[in-house]
Amino acid sequence: PPSRPREQAAARLGLSAPVTTLSGIKEAFAEKFARLGVTTIRDLLQLFPRRYDDFRRLKLIGQLEYGEEVTIIATVWEAGVRRTRGGAQMFQAVLSDDSGVIQCTWFNQAYLLDKLTRGTQIVISGRVEEYMGRLTFQNPEWEPLDKELLHTARLVPVYPLTEGITNRWLRRVMKRVVEYWTPRVADHLPASVTQPAHLADLGMALRQVHFPEDWDDLNRARKRLAFDELFLIQMGVLIQRQAWRSEQGRALEFDLAAVEQLVAGLPYLLTAAQRHALDEILADLRQAVPMNRLLQGDVGSGKTVVAAAAAWAAMQAGAQVAFMAPTEILAEQHARTMANILGERATLRLLTGSTPEAEKQMIYGELAEGKANIVVGTHALIQAGVVFHDLGLIVIDEQHRFGVQQRAALRQKGYLPHVLVMTATPIPRTLALTLYGDLDLSLINEMPPGRQKIETHWLFPTERERAYTFVRSQVSKGHQAFIICPLVKESEKLKARDMEVKSAVEEYKRLKQEIFPQLRLGLLHGRMKGEEKEATMGQFARGELDVLVSTSVVEVGIDVPNATVMLVEGANRFGLSQLHQFRGRVGRGTAPAFCLLLADSGNATSDERLSAIETISDGFALAEKDLELRGPGEFFGTRQSGLPDLRMAKVTDVNLLELARAQAEKLFRADPGLKAPEHQLLAERVNRFWSGEGDIS
Ligand code: ADP
Ligand code: MG
Q1: Does ligand 1 have an atom closer than 6 angstroms to the CB of 588?
Q2: Which end of the chain has the lower number of beta carbons within 10 A, N or C?
Q3: Whose Cα sits closest to atom 25 in ligand 1?
Q4: Running DSSP on this structure, what letter comes out for residue 299?
Q5: Burial class of residue 82 (count of CB atoms within 10 Å of its CB; 0-12, 13-18, 19+)
């Protein structure tokens, strides 16, 4: 309870009070807590345990067995500090109960001398170790028997830590905070939601997630907290969708015959799925409601041409089009493709980070005056300098790399422009509805005719030579190959990107000098300048290079029909959908194509992934598999998707997803503006959650 002035002030601020207002938490801890993402008391309650040690098994000393995790209650028989030969201090105590004695050792904790004096009754929890043929405990958790047990004899929370914050200390702090605050936490979910969904009340859930009595308690707590995250996402998505739809957009008037003319001029017929998607988009563009549509289609299903036809429709109506891609290489490629398809219909500009300043200024001018009617680019498009004369349509490629905020930023460049988002990551339907519920869905679920299945082989490291021989034989037939370098984990000294570049450069040299001295090799990585990349890509596309060695930057979108081999090094380090993306780079021509996956090591899961991609060629089936094999959040990485962090919810929990969606829809129907007094707290929570605070209490 608040006693000192500092705590009284904190009580007024409530959960938003800084953690340093808690007694015993000095200013110096602010920085340490910040490293754990904790600033306020609310954040602290949100700092969920990483795991729990189950120390509920009580045993007598005489019954202990090597290796088990147990708890004993014993009396200190004798205790003392010794020095090891290395000079470290070692506190040792001999403990006894009616059944026997056992020695315990703690390193560098001489202060225990004052605490564990002879005759003290203590509780010890930990793993039973063996030393010189005798059972012992080393650095076990302990606490005096006379107080409420926090570290022993229960499900003990184990928190994520940082330097200067120990579990023992944090548990004590947490216990106080939980005791005081959880009864005072106001539940933002109305009973009309919690009751039908059988959810624990928020205060109870927060209490039990930290100090559960048993696993059932913990599961109930987790369910409630996970539900909250999914529910808040749903509410946010529903509110966004409604806000978007209630705005007056601009109905674009275009001549359908002219669009048909563009389509008829293509060197191929649109597939039925492309046709259907295009019709849906064109219908949207004619409406005064701003379009907000997700175009989903596997790699190579032909999304770009659909976007190009839509762009032409918008341009005819006198509007400008912005086309945003996640990387420069992709932006460059899209610019080429769009220019190809649109021809004289378009005055197209390319705007990326490496566009020279003078040219940038010129493009800004042309866009502001409406002289350029389509601009393709990267994030550069959302820079402040970019002003449009009349932006009518935004196309965003590769949805999951752009956040909700970036979408919004681009939107603000136009007077409520229509938005088309394209993704090649097939998202299972439930998930799509939850994560992108603010978007309408179009699906290209069919490949252009004549595409062959890409023969996929998973090879052991020992078969690398075979892979190289195969590359040589394909090149001798006039074809080309991609070689993807492994992903690199971030190290202390170098950022992942830099390490990736370094290792790609080395691999390139090795391949060029030792493996393929007679072939023409090119290198592509993320630290190259725009022109360099462009030049290399161009060479590869024109067939002037046989092999393109690349970091994962070519992951999406590059289109070279003559390339027939995709060799992925360190394949086990990539996710399934990423591998599928790589594979989609080949098989775009008429010749048979191959994907060779070289694993540099393996564990059970990556093996399962690699054998899945060997046998499954359908992107959706693979996505389902990926979702099944990968853990929470990892499917896309929620950070990349621009969604608030999911701490508790797993996107794989379809039942909970559906429960949250159903409840959110019900509540939204009843009170779309969250105006009812009993929805006030919820309205605030939704705001806070979507404004990036990402907390849930
Ligand atoms: P996505 O962006 O969906 O991965 P693209 O739009 O890059 O796919 O198209 C892949 C390739 O297929 C391109 O070379 C494109 O010209 C070609 N293509 C697109 N639609 C068709 C079609 N209906 N028939 C034949 N080829 C097509
Ligand atoms: Mg594409």
Answers
A1: yes
A2: N
A3: 448
A4: T
A5: exposed
